[in-house]
Amino acid sequence: MEIPDVMLRHERARRFQDLLIEDVKFALREGKHLLAHAPTGIGKTDAVLSPAVPYSLKEGKTVLYLSPKISQHEMVLRVLQGMERKFGVSIKAVEVVGKQYMCIHPLASKMRGEDFYELCRKLKESEECPFYRRMLLSPPDIQLDGIRDHFFFIEEGRKQGYCPHELAFSLLPEANVIIGDYYHLFSPRVGKIFQKKLGKKLEDLVLIVDEAHNLPERIRKVLSSTLRNSFLERAAREASGIDPEIHRLLLDAKERLESFGRSLRDGEEREVDRDLIVEIFQAELGELGEELMEMGKEFLEMTGRTRSMLLRVGKFLSQWEEDDEGFLRYVKRRGELISVVKKNLDPAVLSSSIFEKLHASVLISGTLTPPEMYRDLLGIPFDRAVLREYPSPFPKENRLVLVYPAVTTRFRKRVHSEFLRIGKKISEIVERVPGNVAVFFPSYDVLKAVKHFIHTSKPVFEQRERMTPEELAELLGNFRAQRERGALLLAVAGGSLSEGVDYPGKDLLAAIVVGIPLAEMTLEVKKLIDYYEEKYGRGWLYGYIYPAITKVLQAMGRVIRSEKDRGVMVLMDERYTWKNYRKAFPRDLDFVVTVEPEKYVEEFFRKRGG
Questions:
Q1: Which of 37, 365, 396, 407 might form a disulfide with 389, Cβ 3.0–4.6 angstroms?
Q2: pLDDT band, residue 364 (cuts 50/70/90)
Q3: pLDDT score for 309
């Protein structure tokens, strides 16, 4: 059977989905990088995979589909299975997730993060892991003959005694489609291992990045590291029973760091150069870092503990002297806590070389706006970048976006009278919504200041700082349970309740965003603004304003999740009428500026029968 150019599993394309499909086809054919702002409802996964998979099958390429969460893999698997059924083609696909999530070694359930990976590496090097050793002594006789998720490899690993992660990686060269995490490509350590196991050049890959607005910050995070005086104290305790000399070295380093920290005022941040850590440790950092990491693995084996601070300190020292361009090094003091931070400012130091070599890519998100910012931040070549913004496919009459410009949360205006006005207006709006309402604040401080002035007959649910995932799930469940009666949720923009959570149907009829969730003007944010200004001439936009508007768009996007949903979004701040802020929003978003939003809200739900 001849493979068609597009294998859409549905009978016909959705509204605007056909435009996205054509742009993906063009990018693949011409070796371009498509950066696509595609609102919820277009059917992004189908639109990207339906041309990418047949293209790769015919051209001998491999589709690499990366997303920030494992939960998003399920949709990709469903799309691939639907394509197989409809078109009778055979697709070889492998889903890989973090090694710890696939590990069947007893230690996996007891450890997490870097400690697990370092101990895993040591067990592999010494061939002490029985599952990895079996892979070496008796390589599995297994072939990739379908679409395999990570649960398949876990089950096979248990049956045959093999490491599930290594089992999945052994089949990467055979795959037409690989589903993974950002880190499988955009991490110096994991990416190198992944590419080696894949056995293919970047030029042979078609990359798809889902929720791509997250990618720059994820890269910055993986390239950054922190050392604290408390880390040194805990690392010294771990070393005391292994090496008295290292024990004393770490305590001396702690004293020197604290001595330096005493020169800072409480809350102060000060930029430093790389020589500071050399002075604090008075040792060759690369060698000491390796020694501490080996000692940390030894500590974990000796004690059966699940975490080692020796590992963390060793990794920090190993990374400290690497790179200079695009990084900020600084010390900050918070009470008795002294922290040394190496923070990446420029994700392009890692990603630009990747995008230069890839055959083609599609970066897609419902909040990838403005696309040119992501092109710049990721270092995507101008001559290969294709920038697109697609309209929402949902009926415009189902959505009302209001701007209430009579208040602001600007720092100078954060006074009692302003909080009173905000709370009063929220109360008036909430009482006119026949169901659930969420109010998203720029910070917990503003939330706490305003909540006392909100008066409503509806039950109120409040997000608190440092809630556990279980507490958040319970809070969300209780809020959703009130959908018929109507309830009020108070949360923060940029938090776990405003991004990545669906409120379908009547779960949420209105979202109010109070103020603009701008980052605190820390040394890091100032340096980020300066860096982007020097490199792109857009420091305030890229380093300050646009990231905040992305949080706003994520919060607004919780309301309308399907073509049948209807709802209201209210933006409460005078700055939403300012040009610099408005141009960060999608072009098809129509605003109504009013000092009486409650009247518009009442009329909207009256016309649509609640």
A1: 37
A2: very high
A3: 94
From start to end of 172-274, where are the E strands? Answer: 177-181, 205-209, 225-228, 269-271
Give the CA angle between residues 233, 237, 242 to the nearest 5°. Answer: 135
Q: Please state the separation of Cα 435 from the chain's center in Å.
A: 30
Same fold, 17-91+176-220+348-389 and 396-607: yes
Q: Record the tokens describing residue 217, joined without a space.
A: 């910050």
**Hey, what's the torsion of the CAs at 210, 212, 215, 216, to 10 degrees?**
170
CA gap 3, 26 in Å, rounded: 18
In the chain, domain spans: 17-91+176-220+348-389, 225-344, 396-607
Residue 354: pLDDT band with limits 50, 70, 90: very high
**pLDDT, tens only, 587-600:** 888 899 999 999 99
User: What's residue 610's pLDDT?
Assistant: 52
Rounded to whole angstroms, the Cα distance separating 311 from 384 reads: 41
Confidence check: pLDDT of 305 > 90:
no
| Angle formed at CA 310 by CA 306 and CA 314, multiple of 5 degrees | 125
Give the amino acid at 460.
V
pLDDT tens digits for range 537-569? 999 999 999 999 999 999 999 998 788 889 999
Burial (CB < 10 A; 0-12, 13-18, 19+), residue 493, is: buried
Torsion of CA 594, 598, 600, 604, to 10 degrees: 150
Query: Per CATH, the architecture of 17-91+176-220+348-389 is what?
Result: 3-Layer(aba) Sandwich (3.40)
In terms of Cα–Cα distance, which of 342, 368, 381 is closest to 527?
Answer: 342
Q: Which class would CATH give 396-607? A: alpha beta
Could you tell me the two tokens for 503? 């409120």
Contact 572, 607 (CB under 8 A): no
Query: pLDDT, tens digit, for every residue of 218-259?
Result: 999 999 999 999 999 999 999 998 999 999 999 999 999 999
Tokens found for residue 204: 């042979």
pTM: 0.92
**Residue 124 burial by CB count (10 A; 0-12/13-18/19+): exposed, middle or buried?**
middle
Looking at residue 71, what is its pLDDT?
86
Residues facing 573 on adjacent strands: none
Nearest to 148 by CA among 159, 156, 138, 160: 156
Buried b (16+ CB within 10 A) or exposed e, 512-547: bbbbbbbbeeebbebbbbebbeebeebbebbbbbbb
Q: Do residues 338 and 316 lie in contact, with contact meaning Cβ atoms separated by under 8 Å?
A: no
Q: How far apart are CA 529 and CA 523, in angstroms?
A: 10
Residue 163's contacts (CB-CB under 8 Å, 6 or more residues apart) are 103, 104, 129, 131, 132, 134, 135, 157
- Residue 139 class from Cβ within 10 Å (0-12 exposed, 13-18 middle, 19+ buried)? exposed
Which top CATH class is 225-344?
mainly alpha
Q: What is the pLDDT of residue 82?
A: 96
C-alpha span between 392 and 350 (Å, rounded): 33
